[in-house]
């Protein structure tokens, strides 16, 4: 990867996620509808929906449309898949109690190898070394929460996405809104990380909100807890873990649904393979569909993510 910033549009999200976790996606196997509010001409003020308690059921992401079942590729040339992943990015990648690689990405890689019926190895490396290791044939595929980007596409090929990192609003529990539109936040104070894609999105789409930029997660979240802002807006996976963790003090909940505008929040997270390795790329795409179709992806997601970011 050219740099860790290029490597993940997620890397701004990585700053948001380090220490917690780092996935919106398509829900229930149907393509997710992004809330992408358009700028509108002035209109009569609208009253936002009455605040209601947050009680969203767990949702499982999936980018697989059952109407687009991939054909089984020729798998005869595959005998082993050497996966590369990173060292410390829980719950996606971490070292287990037995010293072996563990995490959502690792278990998904092993499920794909079981489906393809090939031997699977998983090697952990520092994130910034993964692309060089792949291109120098020290591995066959990278499964490390790597966000697809034009810069990376110039160096590697990607499978279909297997998750996406949505953005969401969070409010205090006594002010939860089931739906959020630009007109609902007119004059509202919204906290966001300075210089992030989330700030750029708010500036483009929520022009009547009063933005308050913070240097990092801790300051932004503390401002919401103290009531200095009405909402915060950021990485939904990181926020889901915070909402359900002790640091939040059970103060807050999601408001409105996920925002997945790719121009701001990226194309999704895929598995990287060497340029031109269509045999492996197609095999992994087929295996991901099969793992999802059999319900194993859902089981895996729920094992690692008990709090829905969607």
UniProtKB/TrEMBL annotation:
<dbReference type="Pfam" id="PF00497">
    <property type="entry name" value="SBP_bac_3"/>
</dbReference>
<feature type="compositionally biased region" description="Pro residues">
    <location>
        <begin position="39"/>
        <end position="51"/>
    </location>
</feature>
<keyword id="KW-0732">Signal</keyword>
<feature type="region of interest" description="Disordered">
    <location>
        <begin position="31"/>
        <end position="71"/>
    </location>
</feature>
<protein>
    <submittedName>
        <fullName>Transporter substrate-binding domain-containing protein</fullName>
    </submittedName>
</protein>
<feature type="signal peptide">
    <location>
        <begin position="1"/>
        <end position="34"/>
    </location>
</feature>
<feature type="compositionally biased region" description="Low complexity">
    <location>
        <begin position="52"/>
        <end position="61"/>
    </location>
</feature>
<dbReference type="InterPro" id="IPR001638">
    <property type="entry name" value="Solute-binding_3/MltF_N"/>
</dbReference>
<feature type="domain" description="Solute-binding protein family 3/N-terminal">
    <location>
        <begin position="80"/>
        <end position="308"/>
    </location>
</feature>
């Amino acid at each position: 990867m050219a740099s860790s910033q290029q490597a993940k549009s997620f890397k701004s999200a990585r700053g948001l996620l380090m220490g917690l976790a780092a996935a919106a996606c398509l829900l229930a196997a149907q393509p997710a509808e992004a809330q992408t509010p358009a700028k509108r001409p002035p209109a009569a003020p609208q009253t936002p929906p009455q605040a209601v308690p947050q009680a969203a059921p767990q949702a499982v992401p999936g980018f697989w449309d059952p109407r687009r079942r991939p054909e089984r590729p020729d798998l005869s040339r595959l005998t082993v898949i050497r996966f590369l992943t990173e060292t410390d990015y829980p719950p996606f990648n971490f070292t287990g109690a037995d010293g072996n690689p563990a995490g959502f990405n690792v278990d998904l890689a092993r499920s794909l190898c079981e489906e393809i019926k090939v031997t699977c190895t998983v090697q952990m490396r520092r994130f910034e070394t993964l692309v060089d290791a792949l291109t120098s044939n020290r591995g066959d595929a990278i499964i490390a929460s790597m966000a697809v980007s034009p810069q990376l596409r110039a160096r590697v090929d990607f499978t279909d996405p297997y998750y996406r990192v949505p953005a969401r609003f969070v409010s205090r529990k006594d002010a939860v809104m089931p739906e959020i539109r630009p007109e609902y936040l007119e004059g509202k104070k919204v906290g966001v990380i300075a210089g992030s894609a989330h700030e750029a999105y708010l500036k483009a789409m929520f022009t009547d909100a009063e933005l308050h930029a913070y240097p990092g997660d801790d300051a932004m979240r503390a401002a919401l807890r103290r009531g200095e802002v009405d909402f915060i807006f950021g990485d939904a996976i990181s926020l889901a873990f915070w909402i359900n963790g002790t640091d939040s003090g059970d103060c807050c909940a999601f408001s409105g649904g996920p925002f997945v505008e790719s121009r701001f929040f990226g194309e999704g997270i895929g598995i990287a393979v060497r340029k031109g390795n269509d045999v492996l790329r197609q095999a992994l795409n087929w295996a991901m569909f099969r793992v999802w179709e059999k319900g194993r992806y859902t089981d895996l997601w729920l094992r690692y993510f008990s709090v829905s970011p969607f």
